[in-house]
Amino acid sequence: MKVLIIGGTRFIGLRLVHQLSSSGHEVVLFHRGDSRADLPDSVRTVHGDRHHLSEHAVDLRGFGADVVVDMIAFTERDARELVATFRGAAGRLVVISSGDVYRDYGIFARLEEGPIEATPVTEDGPLRRNLFITRASGSKPGDDLYEYEKILVERVVLGDSELPGTVLRLPMVYGPGDYQHRLAPYLKRMFEGRPAILLNEGMARWRCVRGYVEDVAAAITLAVTNPLAAGRVYNVAEPSALTEAEWVARIAAVVGWSGSIVSVSGDKMPVPFNTAQDLTVDSTRIRSELGYRESIDPDLALQRTVAWQRENLMEMKVDYDEEDRLLADSVPTIDDASGV
């Protein structure tokens, strides 16, 4: 199979490239050429800017891809240019989306009003009514993500009758190479021997779906290689969702940190989210239709993530004096973090 990947040199995309290449597929990678990714020798590269995809249409269409995977279609314009470029020149599109399209995310992020959404959410669950979620956090015209909206990307990709599309809605993805450093706030405190991790009381109970990077890439690989995925939308996530306190405890067990996880009242430690709204999805569809299963042991996945993060811990400033003050006024909810 011929597979063209747009933006596959970082984190999830790089794993996808390796998985497809090692399975014998012919892979071409379109990217800016800024990163020094460890690519297989068999992978061909075309350098160019994703925002000017049409300028490379002749070369990209000439590849005759069976499937085009777009890892970085963030805006409606991205999606329209993608479809226009490959209509009549590729067999199918696979586009990476996010769980942030669901209405439960809008409730959680306080972008929408209304009752708490029931979870886990299936692929047919209600989507957000309010678009352009990055604008609420201060994104301005001209910013890269000002026009970010996966809901509009999905509409374009799934709405073209001539070029079948597949959409994968991803969870919070962790693993080596996570450029968002999702574990860093907890690991910094554990590595520095802090006596406790403080969590807003609502956040401690809040549940969120996650996925290990290798497993998520495997889910995308299945969607690429299985023609039954045409026209379908899939949630990708681990089968169960931990509370944030349980997640911190799992990290602590890997690190060997024996401090306490402390729940702090919302008035003393406010967060901008509606933590009564869990963010969990049902991933039954991709498991039943494409046979998706996680292949990496969860403990091993977390061990690999912690080991990488230990060597790549981002700089961050933390007010430990304020944490000590809050700690003195709070009661640990979990005395031994490794015991959860």
Provide a short characterization of the protein structure.
This protein has 340 residues and is an alpha/beta fold.
Could you give the topology of this structure?
Layout (H helix, E strand, L loop, with lengths): L1 E5 L4 H12 L3 E6 L12 E4 L9 H6 L4 E4 L5 H11 L5 E7 L4 H6 L41 H9 L6 E6 L1 E3 L9 H8 L4 E5 H5 L4 E3 H13 L7 E3 L8 H12 L4 E5 L19 H7 L7 H14 L8 H9 L2 E4 L6
Parallel strand pairs: 1-2, 1-4, 2-3, 4-5, 5-6, 6-10, 7-9, 8-11
Antiparallel strand pairs: 11-12
Helix pairs in contact: 1-8, 3-5, 6-9, 9-11
Roughly how many Å is the radius of gyration?
Answer: 21 Å
- Stated plainly, the CATH topology is called Rossmann fold
Summed over residues and divided by their number, the pLDDT gives a mean of 94
| SSE order, one letter for each helix or strand | EHEEHEHEHHEEHEHEHEHEHHHE
Name given to the CATH homologous superfamily? NAD(P)-binding Rossmann-like Domain
Multimerization status: single chain
The number of helical elements comes to 12
